[in-house]
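Q: what sequence does this backbone want?
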């Protein structure tokens, strides 16, 4: 149950990271925008540190699972634990890669398709002429 809760927390953290991004540009000249830019930079740093801490906790939990695996005698139960460990290791490795990529890109996340695009243009009004 702890792993499920941790996974949900990690997913929410990632969603917040992706939702709170701004374009990666030089600091704006407007003082209010400069303050906002600084706030975004600080949030990015905090989220990156939180993600690193989550990954560290998950790695510790997987190591505990591996230690428990050594005490299991039932072959079927051991196979289930091993599968579970492999799944968690895959997720942790993926999170590690994501975290490193996001850290290298900074708070703008410019390299991810769909991020930082301008809002879509409003639809044009219907034409007055009827189709033939």
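A:
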């Amino acid at each position: 149950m702890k792993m499920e809760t941790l996974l949900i927390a990690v997913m929410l953290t990632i969603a917040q990271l992706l939702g709170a991004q701004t374009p990666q540009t030089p600091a704006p000249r407007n003082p209010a925008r400069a303050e906002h830019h600084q706030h975004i930079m600080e949030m990015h740093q905090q989220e990156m540190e939180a993600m690193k801490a989550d990954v560290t906790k998950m790695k510790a939990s997987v190591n505990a699972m591996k230690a428990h695996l050594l005490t299991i005698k039932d072959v079927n139960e051991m196979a289930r634990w091993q599968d579970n460990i492999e799944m968690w290791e895959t997720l942790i490795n993926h999170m590690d890669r994501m975290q490193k990529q996001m850290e290298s890109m900074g708070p703008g996340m410019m390299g991810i398709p769909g991020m930082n695009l301008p809002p879509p243009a409003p639809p044009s009004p219907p034409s007055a002429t009827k189709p033939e």
